[in-house]
Automatic annotation (TrEMBL):
<dbReference type="GO" id="GO:0000408">
    <property type="term" value="C:EKC/KEOPS complex"/>
</dbReference>
<dbReference type="Pfam" id="PF08617">
    <property type="entry name" value="CGI-121"/>
</dbReference>
<dbReference type="GO" id="GO:0002949">
    <property type="term" value="P:tRNA threonylcarbamoyladenosine modification"/>
</dbReference>
<comment type="function">
    <text>Component of the EKC/KEOPS complex that is required for the formation of a threonylcarbamoyl group on adenosine at position 37 (t(6)A37) in tRNAs that read codons beginning with adenine. The complex is probably involved in the transfer of the threonylcarbamoyl moiety of threonylcarbamoyl-AMP (TC-AMP) to the N6 group of A37. CGI121 acts as an allosteric effector that regulates the t(6)A activity of the complex. The EKC/KEOPS complex also promotes both telomere uncapping and telomere elongation. The complex is required for efficient recruitment of transcriptional coactivators.</text>
</comment>
<keyword id="KW-0539">Nucleus</keyword>
<comment type="similarity">
    <text>Belongs to the CGI121/TPRKB family.</text>
</comment>
<dbReference type="InterPro" id="IPR036504">
    <property type="entry name" value="CGI121/TPRKB_sf"/>
</dbReference>
<dbReference type="GO" id="GO:0005634">
    <property type="term" value="C:nucleus"/>
</dbReference>
<dbReference type="InterPro" id="IPR013926">
    <property type="entry name" value="CGI121/TPRKB"/>
</dbReference>
<keyword id="KW-0819">tRNA processing</keyword>
<protein>
    <recommendedName>
        <fullName>EKC/KEOPS complex subunit CGI121</fullName>
    </recommendedName>
</protein>
<dbReference type="GO" id="GO:0005829">
    <property type="term" value="C:cytosol"/>
</dbReference>
Length: 212
């Protein structure tokens, strides 16, 4: 897992990549069920147990791609302009090149067929934490992630890699409507140049989302 303190947002972001995962269908059912539970102690406890953004890793081209969506979600929250119900669901919406919330869940969220999954947890930070307390908090987040997902935690270096990684380049090009983009023409799919160019294009798309 990787942790990114964002003091200007008074937040800390935790990212973990699970590859492969073995309980996608059951986990998705759990998320749907948690959202319908009563606002009582049991319901709140179950929602807290799955309080993450569950992002299909095949659609993520790099850490920067995902962190840009996190940054945009935090900016929207600061402006009181969230388009979705939670900060974590806003991350998914920021990844979506269009404006349809349902499409963002379909394209970037957990599905029964998801094989690789990035979990994002955005926690408030007061700036008063010590190195020890930050480490303890990160360990607790990872424990909760691992309790929810049946799979192996692997390096985030696998993001954006086609061979031996998690990227579905064809799916990313289709969702971001880049098949005819001049920047990608002449570049062999799966090549380092193609993946680097794809990453720049989709990250730029996310970075501009707030202006839409």
């Amino acid at each position: 897992m990787e942790t990114y303190p964002l003091p200007h947002h008074q937040a800390t972001v935790h990212l973990a990549l699970f590859h492969p995962i073995h309980n996608a269908a059951a986990l998705r059912s759990r998320l749907v069920s948690a959202s319908t539970l009563a606002q009582d102690e049991a319901g709140n406890r179950e929602r807290a147990a799955v309080d993450f953004a569950f992002v299909d890793a095949r659609m993520i081209t790099s850490r920067l791609h995902l962190l840009t969506a996190v940054q945009q979600a935090l900016l929207a929250q600061a402006d009181g302009a969230l388009k979705t119900k939670t900060l974590h669901s806003e991350v998914l919406w920021m990844l979506e090149p269009g404006t349809n919330i349902t499409d963002s869940l379909k394209h970037f969220g957990l599905s029964p067929s998801t094989a690789s999954l990035v979990l994002v947890h955005i926690a408030p930070s007061t700036g008063q934490a010590t190195a020890k307390s930050e480490r303890t908090a990160a360990e607790d987040v990872l424990r909760r992630m691992a309790a929810a997902v049946e799979g192996e935690v692997v390096s985030l270096e696998a993001l954006g890699r086609s061979e031996g990684g998690t990227l579905d380049e064809k799916a990313v090009r289709k969702v971001y409507k880049l098949n005819q983009d001049t920047a990608l023409k002449g570049l062999q799919a799966g090549s380092d140049d193609a993946r680097a160019t794809l990453d720049r294009l989709v990250t730029s798309s996310v970075a501009l989302k707030v202006a839409m």
